[in-house]
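TICKET: design request
STATUS: open
ATTACHED STRUCTURE:
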């Protein structure tokens, strides 16, 4: 399942960071991060929750994204992200959710918790463009005069509200000089029209220069 896959990814990334850091991370004094730029690539699992006004179902899809940011001070940073869906989510075999693309802006704070690891929190806004489509089963139920699909009302542009508040909590582990493995989770968007919300869980790599 997607939950098992994500657990394996997070475990592998954490073990990699723990094993590689003592060998590869520089023992020299750290270069101040203020003014440094970073780029990154992330693989993300999206957990869609509370889909459908009555059913409140959940499902998983995946995205890939690029990150560009800068450290505006030693402990604060700003960044932008852009990503696109790589797999779709299916609800009850009746509704398919496809996040076509998204773009996010964040401001955040980070703090070193060891010589090679940092904790961070980010708050910002995201624009999300996607589509919700009835599957053949959903269309068949909706066409039946004695039946209907509970998802027919949201089978259109998804989410209805394309802008939303986003937030993230994360850790990064330096595994080479200025190169970090990233683990993070948070909320990508909440659809104020339908009440559906989507949480994001990511792992990846970023490089500072």
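STATUS: resolved
RESOLUTION: sequence designed for all positions
ATTACHED SEQUENCE:
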């Amino acid at each position: 399942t997607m939950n098992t896959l994500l657990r394996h990814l997070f475990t592998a990334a954490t073990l990699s960071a723990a094993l590689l850091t003592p060998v590869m991370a520089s023992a020299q004094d750290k270069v101040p991060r203020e003014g440094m730029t970073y780029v990154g690539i992330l693989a993300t699992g999206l957990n869609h929750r509370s889909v459908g006004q009555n059913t409140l179902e959940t499902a998983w899809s995946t995205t890939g994204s690029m990150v560009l940011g800068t450290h505006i001070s030693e402990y604060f940073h700003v960044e932008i992200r852009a990503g696109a869906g790589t797999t779709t989510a299916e609800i009850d075999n009746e509704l398919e959710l496809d996040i076509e693309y998204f773009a996010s802006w964040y401001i955040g704070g980070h703090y070193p918790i060891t010589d090679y690891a940092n904790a961070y929190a980010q708050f910002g806004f995201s624009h999300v463009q996607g589509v919700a489509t009835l599957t053949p089963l959903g269309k068949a139920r909706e066409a039946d005069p004695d039946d209907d699909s509970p998802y027919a009302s949201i089978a259109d542009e998804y989410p209805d509200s394309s802008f939303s508040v986003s937030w993230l909590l994360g850790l990064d582990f330096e595994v080479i000089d200025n190169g970090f493995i990233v683990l993070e989770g948070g909320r990508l968007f909440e659809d104020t029209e339908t009440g559906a919300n989507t949480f994001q869980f990511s792992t990846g790599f970023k490089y500072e220069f």
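CLOSING REMARK: Residues 143 and 149 are 9 Å apart (CA to CA). The helical segments are 2-24, 136-143.
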